[in-house]
Structure prediction request, 712 residues.
Amino acid sequence: MTTTTPAQFSPAGFVPTEEQVKIQISRNRTTLVIANAGAAKTTTLALRIGEALTRGLAPEDILALTFTDEARQVLQSRLQDVGIAYNTARRVNVQTMEDFAQRVLSNIEDGKPEILHSTREQQSFALSALENVALGHPQYADLLDIRTHNTAVSQFLDGLLKLKATMQIFGDGGDDPQYAAESANTPLTDYLWAIEYEKQRVDVFGHVAARGFFDASYDLASRLTAEPDTRHQLPFYKLVVCDELHDINEASFRILEALLSIGISYFVGVGDKDQVIYSHLGADESFLRHRIASSFPDCATLPLTMTYRHGPHLAYAMEAFKHKPVDSNLPVRTEIREPTYPDAPGACGIEAVNAALQWKQDGRALDKCCILLRDAHQSIEIENALMNAGVQYRTLTMNSYLLREEILFLRGMIAIALDDFHHVASPATREAIVEALATFAEVPLTPQELREAKTTLSKEPSALKHFFDGQIQRVGSVSARTRIADAVAHLRGLAADTPAHGALEHVCHIMDMDNLARRLYVHPYEASVVTRSVSGFIATAQSSGKSLRQFSEWIGAAEAFAGARPAKNAVLVDCIVNVKGKEFEHVILPFMAAGEFPSPLRELEEEKNLFYVAATRTKSRLTLISPEAPAQRSAFLAQMQLDGIQKRADTALRRNVATPAKALGHRDLKVAYANREVVKALGAQWDKTRKVWYVPGNLDPEPFRQWFADPS
Prediction:
């Protein structure tokens, strides 16, 4: 049952909006908050926690869940930002869902599983399980496609993560593993591999030998599903809050559902269905749309429509794009610029650099400007344009294109042909090139053999010829060995002044790179990114006008530029999928073209969500770079209805500028113990949650001036 009892917790430094107060004082057993990007979701959860503490709830009775460690740290920090005393805030249980599951399991399991901390440890574990796939499933021998290179193992681990997140692994594969694999949209080999991986990880008695990423959540969800009474072994909390619910998946939902089924708990969860972009990790908007409301009792759905990240112009553009209420009361004009580029090689990259340099010319710092990419292959044109302009840049979570696997392979081929590995200065890059050669040459090296080769070549570049003759040409399929031998022979037979791009084109033709990418990468989208990356690299060679040896030397210099310690004032570059939860002063979105964004190989709704996430990362300026020809532009641009919302946004901005800033809801005081009765007699109140005296907003603060905590 809801209540209109006034809020008792007064945050420091700001006045909550009506929407926030409704969430803060909601007395429904379940409160689902549907929020917009930049709507102070985490701050609102902190207000709800502050209200509970002020009403007498012990910090230990509160659980705050997130899905990433970064979000956990932000929520922990936000508790103090709203004014909750440090000693109180640190007693609130703020955990990731994975850490919570791990803690629960450690209390109910007898043994202590080995923790697979690194990807390398998980890959070794996976390769060990792979050995049992053919032995354990001989009836499918003709259908199996078993590969041991790192790309195959990495793709398997990614697929395994989704199978666990969506709870689609069956210990014995069910009656028909082929049907189960098709239902999960997973190759049969990977599905059977997942079964063997789990058999190796968890024995028939339920003893867990090891846990990798997300395994604790999966194991707890599995136990709760198989043994529902396990929920009585979960810790009980009187208030549970959960941030970023748009990242929730089936396994996490089952844990949350069980947690809230014991005793009388209140739950407040916040999310934005338009930020569901991790479907590859099992995220699904159905949880926000109906599953939470239908599963939890007395559910109230409340909105957070106001954004505090950008002004009305972008807020209303996103409202039009997503067909939902979005508003902003910030007195800020968030510019939306739409430069175009001609149909010429490198033209979009040049426009992106121009946009960054214009930002600098306007007196703004380059490190507040981020170029966001739909696909990793697009970084080739962007990085080359930045290097050509002498603009330093820094990639956030993605690698420079020079370190992408398919580019490393071509760099390795050039080095073999020229018998020159010395232009690759970095030992780490040499190791990566060796691994890429083994992958694309389809050389079935054992992990130990690969490690030894990488170590040797990182220290002795001259040993590359021996690696080619002794490993690449010694093992693997005859057809793969023949193709790579023909490609190297072709490169070695070229005249010294042969243009690099022609040589690389012929190598890709001999290697049949399109089909090779489709063999190595399970998903068509990933294979297409590799193919386009290779095409971009060849285009770079063509525009350079250099011979193969000159191009090899240029690559070395380019890697040195890209890998140099960036100055503080360096442009940021990353893929959109990596920056959810972050914000920048200026976001540049290049390649806003039909066929690029949205990607025809992805679901349209998730593509819309991806664009929404990208556009709403900005605070001051959004630059959307599209082709000159209107017919070639992304449909997303028209869907923002920029001309239609302009007048309304201008009016809102004038309103925001004219509206005086709201006074603080209260004024904190710094009061000596001897003066506590004096300020109390004047009307000051004691905030037991924040451990501070304050002047309520309805009182004149002037009589308290001598005790102001902040005299300004």
